[in-house]
Design goal:
The structure holds 3 protein chains of 3 kinds. Chain A is α/β, with parallel strands linked by helices. Chain A has a 6-stranded mixed sheet, sandwiched between helices. Chain A has a 4-stranded antiparallel sheet with strand order 2-1-4-5, covered by helices on one side. In chain A, strand 1 and strand 2 form a beta hairpin. Chain A is globular, with a radius of gyration of 19 Å. In chain B, helix 5 packs across helix 12. By secondary structure, chain C is mainly α. The two termini of chain C are 19 Å apart. The relative contact order of chain C is 0.15. Classes of the chains: A alpha/beta, B mainly alpha, C mainly alpha. At the B-C interface, helix 1, helix 7, helix 12 and helix 13 of B face helix 7, helix 10 and helix 12 of C.
Chain lengths: 279, 334, 286
Amino acid sequence: MSAVLTIERLNARLADVPLLRDVSLDVAAGEIHGLVGMSGAGKSILAKAVLGALPPVVRVTSGSIRFEGTEIVNLPGQKMRLLLARGIALIPQDPLSALNPTRRIEHQMTDVMRARLGLSAAAARGRALALLDEVRVRDPESVLRRFPYEISGGQRQRVLIAIAFACEPRLIIADEPTTALDVTVQKQILRLIDDLRQRHGTAILFVTHDLGVVAKICDRISVMHSGVILEQGTVAAVIAAPRHAFTRALFAATPRHDRPTQELRPVPEALQCAVGVPR
Amino acid sequence: MTRTLLSRLLQAVPTLAGVVVIVFVLVRVVPGNPIAMMLPPGASQADFDHLKALYGLDKSIPVQFLIWLRHAAIGDFGNSISMRSGVLGLVISRLPATLELAALAGAIAIVLGVLAAVAGARWRGRWPEAAIDAVTGFAQAVPDFIWALAAILVLGVLVPVLPISGRSDPSISLNYATQFQLIESVLRFDGHAFIDLMRHMILPALALALPFTAIITRVLKISLKEELTQDYVLLARVKGFGEWRVIVREALRNAAIPTATLTGVQLTFLIGGTVLIERIFSYPGIGNLAIDAVINRDLPMIQGLVLVFALMFIAINLMLDLVTVALNPRLSHG
Amino acid sequence: MVDAAMQGPVIGQPLLRLAGNGRVLIGGTVLGLLLLASIAAPWLAPFDPLDQDLAAQLQRPAWGGHLLGTDSLGRDVLSRLIYGSRIALEVAVLAAIPTAILGTALGLVAGYFGGLADAVISRLVDVWTSFPPVLLSIILVALIGTGLTSVIVAIIVIDWTRFCRVVRAETLKQRHMDYIDAAVVAGLQPLAILSREIWPNIAPLVLVLLTLEMGIAVIVEAILSFVGLSISTDAPSWGGMIAEGRQVVHQAPWIMSAPLLALLATVLALNLLGDGLKAELDPVLK
């Protein structure tokens, strides 16, 4: 099973502050790999590194990121764009700010198809309608005509998912795609993503801080903290036998509806500031 | 949207009325006697009184205003004291020149401003942006009065490539229907006249446009840089679009909205600027006419010109509102 | 208060720091030279600025005789330039200071007392600034009558808003700080609070604006001279010289260039000075 994405001992820093330390993980074809951790753990930085979208002040000091064999680290902009076109997409976190407020939905869906797939305007439009059907948006014709602020948050996220899957990418980075949504909508979106993943065979790196989400949808997970990967393995394995105190604390802090009366304990301060790598 | 337009128009009327009344009163209560300026030395009191009555200056101010209003309603704005010709006619003959100049300056400012801002955003953090900042800073530190004169020296005298006065070469006589000579020359495919007119207009237009350009560049560049940190820009980049496309086709339309709001007010200063620029370049528009009228205490002319300028300000503000609404989809639907 | 007294000469240190700032140094030097030129004009100027010599009109600049040539009435350009600095400086000081006083006073009132006073003053400022200043100043001077006094009055009447806006904003900020509340509780009268507590914090800002205003005043005078609404054309002013030079700019470009450069140098120097002062005072203010 060849990995679509391989990250090996990646190190990145912002001035003197290390943001990522010896991070290694891989995502196999068609797999959903969850990247879990608290805010500030380094998940977003890792995601941006894969997309070639690191802010200029952040530098990768060593390690490698390979997408289907091609090295991403230090790849010049032009080549990175070609690589992205070959098969990487993004489902962003905030549906409202991730859509251009002054452009209609149709344009924002078809532009990438026309650029990457060379489709004509009419063909792209047809495909956009089909995609909107797939993500179960009602009345797709009128949604296409609208501006982002005219549709609901849930619809916006579905549009973004549709955009992500539009060009049949091999890898999708999902950056906390359910965080900005209502709890009721979250479940639907998760199911949708899983469905689409199965149908299109896309590999997904799923970034989230929510263990509940992880348990529902991911195949393997990596638990991250302070730029370090603490645990890695199948969901079942990690949840059943967490090796690090932090992971255990994280689980303890997560509400579970099969044990509704279990007392929640927040992750202790000491563990939150953990610096070393556990063994 | 038509409703907002109408309401703005209605709001404008009292402002217009206010301005007209204030200036009418001011020019009459303040010292400085236009009649005395018109008479030769040694004229008798009878001559003085006669002239005064002729121009209606012997009546009380409210009565004068009513008389003026009554005439104005039928399009009679009186006769210019200094130029001995109908005010309306004079204004109409000179207004197109100023409008063309202002429009040209505005277009230059917007085009140059957008180009400079986009370039500054494209190469942000690097020397081109610093260079653009230095240039706009310098352009704003030096008043446009000086720039206009410097332009005359450099491009009109030192390297004499352009004419520095007038609107067209006196040897070319244009038998055009209107005074919108630049527009007509285009419509008639009169290349020779067009080039000649442009050569005369380009320096004053540039001088007029300079402060506006500097402000547009500064504000738009800052807006653009802010937009580039937004999530939709990240998504556009992940979609594989290059930096130029991201800036021009995604960020620009969003950055244009606050820019238009902030710089729009400067447009009225563009119109006000024509007064000085036309004088410097001896350009025959209403700005030049205004200065003459003021120096000569030409009351009817001053009154008429104030009305015209006030109307232009109102028109500009209306246009600005329209543009803002057009740019921001949220406003036209909400 | 006691600590401040213990710190040694109060004037010496800030002045030294100012001198170290390049912009202040350059700007200040240029202005100093200008001041020198205007004071020492009778000794510096090689000729009488009003002396016409119709036999020597429009002469080119020459080393031996007229260093900057002569104008269309045969008058020495250099001498007129030097004497012109007097008008420039006179207007700069006489116009900028009252403008600062008026604007600052109104700004303090609006910022400190708020309420109706603020509403009225702010509205006034808004209306005032919606008119293009050049147009306004021309109309004003034409109404009042030509002459230097009118120019100065016009500048004050039109530009006080510049000070008012900034001072009002800063006063508002200061007003809500704790040390003002303490003063109010201590029973200090508003006038005392304004003059002893708020003013010292605003003064550096006003000083910076003052240099800016002086530059503006010089330009406005030049523009009004150019248009013919300032002093009579016989007495030398840079604006008037520019107007005359404009008429003969093809035959004798030096007549317009010299005063233009002088104007440019003055305005830039004042801007530089203001910039430098702002840079110096900013960390102290914040």
